Amino acid sequence: FLATTLLLSGLPILLSLGTFGGIPLQTVVMGSALGISTMVMVSAAAVLLAASRRGGRRVLFFFFSGLAAWLCLTEIAHSLSGYTRSNLSVFTPFSPLLSLEAMLAGTVGSNRAVMTHIVASLAITGGLLLAAVLRAALGDSRVSERTLSRSAQEADDGNPIRWRERLRMPSGLHAWIRWWPALVAGLLGAVLAVPGWQNQLNPKTLQGLMQTGVILTSVVAMIACILESASSVTAEREQGTLDLLLSTPLQPKTYLDGKARSLLEARLPLLVTPCLFALGPALGRASHAAEVPVLLLLTLPSVCGFMLSVGLHQSVTSRTTVRATVVTIGLLVLGLLPLHVIGSAVAQLGPGAEVARAIAPLSLIQTLGDRMLESPIPVEDTARISAAVAAIVGAVFWSFLSLMVRANTARGFVRSVRKLSGLR
User: Is residue 217 domain-shared with residue 273, that is, in the same domain?
Assistant: First the structure.
């Protein structure tokens, strides 16, 4: 309400600028309504988080990180689809920034996109507030109570940490709901593989949609792994349960392996999303790109496993979740960016040199996304074999690095836990 009041207090100034500056009155009013509806929707989401979780600053940080990631991803998808910022696309109603810029530029149909965003924001706001009220009224039941019906033998595989984390995962209908991103991605990939749809779209636009779908789903999976791993141990430290491990015979390696495997299993719906998106277009030209979904399934889990290990290391050695997340992102960017540049540069030397993309996972994923459509230049068999070798070598390489990082974390685990808990 404070932000809405500030915006309404500046409305007379905007109206005077519109009157004397030549800006249409409708544009000023709709722009203000767009800002108010967006702020109310964000506030409603914050209320829902406050009513359903007890995470404090950690939840707030995740919320605003996800909001910033959503704005950036819609901008990237809009740009890769071949549109300028003032043009209309399917992503315009989903971003207040794109909607506002299209309306200010006077693009034909922009008012409809803005109204769609306003109405959708208010509808989502009502749903979020209703969910928050119901959540607060019904109470936040603990996960352990909801999973008592699950047998311990079902989840027990010898690692007590993995057994505990699997008991915390949703079961029944909620477990199937987690797979909705993979289902939606598979349906979108199947739609884009229909020849009738391909003939109606510009080849450049279609290629951009293919690249955007594969890269976007892969990046979302990586971001989710980073955020979850960086907060996994610090959350237990903040709750006071991590110090109890010092009085148990549980080994650090067992704890870290159980954490890493359970986190990777929890992100499985996101890990298979790029593969399902690529399945339809790849099978549409099976003689040229049938191996693309399999190679994505080899590449993405291994890279995400490495990111999980780095996030776990920082979560063990950092006192707060925010610090662990920021340091993890910084280390991954500083470490992967040079490898990306080197691998991409070496891969340009020839079809057989694409093996170098094993150290550049994003470049390899982008290359696989490029090959899901027919192109004037056929893909050489040497390039296809090199890409397959790069995916296999990359999976082994990133899995080995993941094990090395976890082994290093296990060696200093007790020292880090004692230091951050005030024990010597």
Answer: yes
pTM of the predicted structure, to 2 decimals: 0.66
Residues 108 and 205 both lie in one domain: no
pLDDT at 321 over 70: yes
Predicted confidence (pLDDT) at residue 144 exceeds the cutoff of 70: no
* Within a domain: 94: yes
For residue range 154-207, list pLDDT tens digits in order. 445 577 777 777 777 766 666 677 777 778 777 777 777 666 666 666 666 666
Structural domain for 49, as ranges: 23-140
Same domain, 132 and 184: no
Helix (H, G, I), strand (E, B) or coil at 16: helix
> Would you give the distance in Å from CA 36 to the centre of its chain?
27
Q: Is residue 11 part of a domain?
A: no
Shared domain check, 260 and 165: yes
Q: How confident is the model at residue 146 (pLDDT cuts 50, 70, 90)?
A: very low
Range 257-284 average pLDDT: 82
Q: How far apart are CA 19 and CA 288, in angstroms?
A: 60
Per-residue DSSP letters for 272-291? SHHHHHHHHHHHHTHHHHTT
| pLDDT one-digit tens code per residue, 12-33 | 776 776 666 666 777 777 777 7
CA pair distance 314, 225, nearest whole angstrom: 13
Residues 169 and 206 in one domain: yes
Helices then strands, counting H and E runs in the chain, come out as: 22, 0
Number of separate domains in the chain: 2
Tell which phi-psi region holds residue 207, choosing left (phi > 0), alpha (psi between -120 and 50) or beta: alpha
Distance CA 322, CA 309 (A): 17
